C-alpha cells in the first residue's frame, strides 16, 4: 500500500511504496500487460484466419495473412480507399477504425441486425466465421459507399424536404 512520507530536508510530501511490495506490484503489472498483449495477438490471428475464409469467397485468400495488405483489401471490400488502412497505425484511432471497418464488412454481406454489429465490435472473428461458413450469405455491395450516398435528405419525398418550419 502506498504511503505519504514527509521529507523534512526538502519540505515536501512524497509517495512511497514499502520496499517489500514494490517487486510484486511490478510483477503483477507485467503479467497483466502480457495477458492483454496475448489477447490482442490471438484476436488478430483469429481475425486473419476468418478474413481468409471471407476473402476466399472473393478470391483473395492469401492476402488475408499479409499484415497491412489484409487491411487494404478489407478497405477495398467495404468501399473505402486502401489508404484508409493507414489510420490503423495510430493509437486510439485504430480502435474506432477497426470497429468501423468490421461493421462495414458485416453490412456489406447483408447482415444488418444489431447483434451482427454487436459481434463485429466485440469479437469480429465470430461474425466473420458465420459469414464465411453460411452458404446463403452473399456479398451485396460495399457498405461504406452505400452509407455515403444515402442521407436523410435524399430519402424524403419532395413534399417533406427539411425546411425551417419542420425543424421548429
SSE map:
Layout: E1 3-7, E2 12-16, H1 19-56, H2 69-78, H3 93-108, H4 114-122, H5 124-133, H6 143-149, H7 152-155, H8 164-167
Antiparallel strand pairs: 1-2
Keywords for this entry:
two-stranded antiparallel ribbon; disordered C terminus; elongated; single chain; 58% helix; mainly alpha; 8 helices
- Helical fraction equals 55-70%
SSE string: EEHHHHHHHH
Q: Count helical runs.
A: 8
Total tally of structural domains:
1
Structural class of the helices, strands and pairings?
A: mainly alpha
Sum up the overall morphology in one term.
elongated
Beta content = 5-15%
Could you list the spans in which at least 5 consecutive residues all have pLDDT below 50?
151-156, 160-168
Overall mean confidence score, pLDDT: 79
Which strand order does the major sheet show?
1-2
How many angstroms separate the termini? Answer: 58 Å
Rounded to the nearest angstrom, the radius of gyration is 24 Å
Extended strand count: 2
Major sheet description: 2 strands, antiparallel
Describe it.
- The chain has 168 residues and is mainly alpha-helical.
- It has one domain.
- It is 58% helix and 6% strand.
- It has a two-stranded antiparallel sheet with strand order 1-2.
- Strand 1 (3-7) and strand 2 (12-16) form a beta hairpin.
- Helix 1 (19-56) runs parallel beside helix 5 (124-133), helix 2 (69-78) packs across helix 3 (93-108) and helix 4 (114-122) packs across helix 5.
- It is elongated and about 75 Å long.
- The model is unreliable at 151-156 and 160-168 (pLDDT under 50).
